Amino acid sequence: MNFRELGLEERLLEGIDAMGYETATPVQAQVIQPILAGRDIIASAQTGTGKTAAFLLPIVHKMLTQQHSSHHINALIIVPTRELAIQIAETMEGLSYFTDISCIAVYGGGDGNSFTAEKKALSSGVDMVVCTPGRMIAHLNMGYVKMQEVKYLVLDEADRMLDMGFNDDIMKIISFLPKQRQNLLFSATMPSKMRDLARKLLQNPAEINIAVSKPPEQITQQAFVVYEPQKIPLIKYVLNNSDYTRVIIFCSKKQNVKQLSSELKRAKFSVEEIHSDLLQDKREQVMQDFRNRKLKILVATDILSRGIDIEEIELVINYDVPNDGEDYIHRIGRTARAATSGTAITFISEAEQRKFAQIETLLGKQVDKLIVPEQFGAAPEYAPRSHKPMGNRRPNQGGGNRPSLRPNKPRPNNSRPSNQGPNNQTNP
User: CATH no. for residue 15?
Assistant: First the structure.
């Protein structure tokens, strides 16, 4: 569907054209019209489907075509992480470039100057606020936030916020809002607690289901079955024997991020790390360098697994097995965006085999197990049903029974297809 067919305001269409988009993604085609009609929305849509633009475009259109207060907040978007808040605000800046609609990202981790700037905007009025729950509550507790005219409430990555324990914070923020408003709830999954939240907030919602909890087919999924000490040397081997130019390595623990990043720096790789211990300005600089290709490899915690949309990531490496299938899907979904291909490699230690087998059950298939090269020594057998941790014992067999494969760089598709609509310039 062409964006002009959706009846969007001309200045908004100019912003869409300037960003090079022509055709709406499926989630945009299904979500924009009900929002324009004033319906509450509950939408299941994964990162990378274009859901950010799916709610930004109709909200901006309604602000441009309907009367609204210039001295109050008109739209409130609540998100789980500061990175996602920043990226949604950046997407908003592009889409609304030819309008006078204002937007600010409100999130923790900055200095006193950023808090002061947020206070000024929240007290004097700004059209749209994208915020993390904790930071917004800090402002609300000080009594100057003008919420009386909020007409649109968006909860993005709502399942993630509930998983992070933000339910009470969300409900507290909502208690400051007028009862008459349009509510838009977006989530990658729909567990029971999501349904409970929807029942509390939404009135006769339109329900849209786009995402399926399966990774895109264009992602080549592979794994190495290894002993824990083999992980870092093997990661160096993979990086040295390929020509990937943009790589994200996920670790579940901050200490693993720090250790791996340090080891790769000593090996002269172009690498930086992202985790919650970094100061906010440093995190933003690292992300900017990665986007601008000043940096080849990013080692990160799951803070980047959701909501972040960076194009042309060719390889995702799971240093360890994610806690569950949904986290796995979100991690590897950082690659193969915008109809390109990509590779995801997971390192499976002895203690992680049962966990990975559960992920394979969710996927409905077994992930190819690559043979560990001989120079790294023997590796464990992949036998999750019978496998027990073996300490330092080494079986004679290598991990897996498939031919030895060297991970090859997929042939990138560097051009955005003309039928790709505005993606989440976040996912995240």
Answer: 3.40.50.300
Does residue 394 lie in a domain region? no
Residue type, 26: P
pTM of structure: 0.60
**DSSP class of residue 195?**
H
Residues 86 and 122 in one domain: yes
Q: Tens place of pLDDT for every residue, the chain, 428 residues? A: 788 899 999 999 999 988 777 788 888 989 999 999 999 999 987 666 678 899 999 999 999 999 887 789 999 999 999 888 998 999 999 999 999 999 999 998 877 788 999 999 999 989 999 999 999 999 999 999 989 999 999 999 999 899 899 999 999 999 999 999 999 999 877 888 888 999 999 999 999 987 555 777 889 999 999 999 999 999 999 999 988 889 999 998 899 999 999 999 999 999 999 988 888 889 889 989 998 999 999 999 887 766 566 778 899 999 999 877 767 887 898 887 665 788 999 999 999 998 898 888 778 889 999 999 999 999 999 998 765 443 333 333 333 333 233 333 333 333 333 333 444 333 33
Regarding beta strands 41-44 and 182-187, do their DSSP bridges make them parallel or antiparallel, or are they unpaired?
A: parallel
Both structure tokens of 236? 């160096």
Segment holding 273, helix H or strand E: strand 271-274
Number of domains in the chain: 2
Q: How far apart are CA 340 and CA 218, in angstroms?
A: 7
Same domain, 194 and 230: no
Quickly tell me which residue has 């915020």 as its tokens: 131
Q: What strands, in cross-sheet order, belong to the sheet with 247-250?
A: 271-274, 297-300, 247-250, 315-318, 342-348, 219-225, 368-370
Q: 78 in a domain, yes or no?
A: yes
Co-location of 85 and 189 in the same domain: yes
